[in-house]
């Protein structure tokens, strides 16, 4: 099984419920199980669209799915939880992104792994560092603990 890290976030409706529902649905994907979940962090949105703050975190999975099969699975979870893709970087009920997929580097039209902006986003790095400080960014060839920096705007929620 491959160890995969997904970032998750929600800033619409009952954010905690949306996240819990998504995490529970991840365990229903074939040959996939959740192994670790970070704390929740509250963060301001990025991208310039005015919207409510996000709850963010990172979850570790073990899976036998391919990267594209996992992408299809998480996109179906987003649809089940009423994710609408109208505004780029806009508000969302749930957002699930593949951050790291083992040590794979994927650069296709549908999927880029590692996530191309993860090393710039404290709301991904801080929770990832909480559950996997020794994980290696396969492009930068650095441990997450060596990339992460403290950010006072990323506030622990729970």
UniProtKB/TrEMBL annotation:
Pathway: Cofactor biosynthesis; tetrahydrofolate biosynthesis; 2-amino-4-hydroxy-6-hydroxymethyl-7,8-dihydropteridine diphosphate from 7,8-dihydroneopterin triphosphate: step 4/4. CDD domains: HPPK. InterPro entries: Hppk, Hppk_sf. Keywords: ATP-binding, Folate biosynthesis, Kinase, Nucleotide-binding, Transferase. One of its GO terms (biological process) is folic acid biosynthetic process. Coiled coil: none annotated. GO terms for molecular function: 2-amino-4-hydroxy-6-hydroxymethyldihydropteridine diphosphokinase activity; ATP binding; kinase activity. Signal peptide: none annotated. Its EC number is 2.7.6.3. PANTHER family: 2-AMINO-4-HYDROXY-6-HYDROXYMETHYLDIHYDROPTERIDINE PYROPHOSPHOKINASE. This is 2-amino-4-hydroxy-6-hydroxymethyldihydropteridine diphosphokinase. It comes from Macrococcoides goetzii.
